[in-house]
């Protein structure tokens, strides 16, 4: 059976996540089927299926807690009091990048990872707002301050859990 190299898996993983993200950006709820297909394809190409599945099971609740906190604090709004299903799919796809295309990021030092997450996550959500996937209910400065702080804490939590899972699995 053909097994793609690590570089090929990295490109496939990154590309499939981007397809998930952009489909959600442009289609939101209408993208659910496409997101599920991409997640299935991502799972086919991960290097360690058991570990990646366990990562999703363990890290998805932490990730969704970040969304719930952001919604509860009034930072972001998806037009409903609950997390949209398409967003849950994006989170699953994002977690499936941790062992593949984001593996280097997960191995960075705490401060480096915090900075990366604190900068790029707000940019991603701002792009989502530009295309109508969500609204940001804070001023730009307040949004960046609050969201960067939340994502910095999130990065420490998931990085810690990721390392515990990948070293003990």
TrEMBL record:
Q: What keywords would UniProt list here? A: Membrane, Transmembrane, Transmembrane helix
The chain's coiled-coil residues are: none
**InterPro entries the record matches:** DUF2878
List residues traversing the bilayer.
20-46, 53-76, 82-98, 105-123, 143-162
This chain belongs to the protein called DUF2878 domain-containing protein
Recorded source organism is Pseudoalteromonas aurantia 208
Question: Which classification does the entry list for the species?
Answer: Bacteria, Pseudomonadati, Pseudomonadota, Gammaproteobacteria, Alteromonadales
């Amino acid at each position: 059976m053909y097994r793609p190299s690590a570089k090929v898996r990295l490109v496939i993983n990154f590309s499939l996540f981007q397809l998930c993200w952009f489909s959600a950006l442009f289609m939101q709820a209408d993208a659910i089927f496409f997101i599920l297909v991409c997640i299935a394809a991502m799972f086919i190409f991960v290097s360690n299926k058991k570990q990646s599945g366990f990562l999703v099971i363990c890290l998805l609740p932490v990730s969704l807690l970040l969304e719930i906190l952001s919604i509860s604090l009034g930072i972001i709004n998806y037009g409903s009091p609950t997390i949209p299903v398409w967003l849950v799919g994006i989170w699953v796809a994002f977690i499936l990048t941790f062992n593949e295309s984001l593996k280097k990021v997960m191995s960075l030092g705490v401060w480096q990872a915090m900075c990366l997450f604190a900068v790029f996550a707000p940019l991603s959500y701002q792009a989502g707002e530009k295309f109508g996937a969500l609204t940001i209910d804070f001023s730009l400065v307040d949004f960046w301050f609050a969201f960067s702080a939340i994502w910095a804490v999130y990065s420490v939590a998931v990085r810690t859990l990721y390392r515990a899972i990948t070293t003990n699995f």
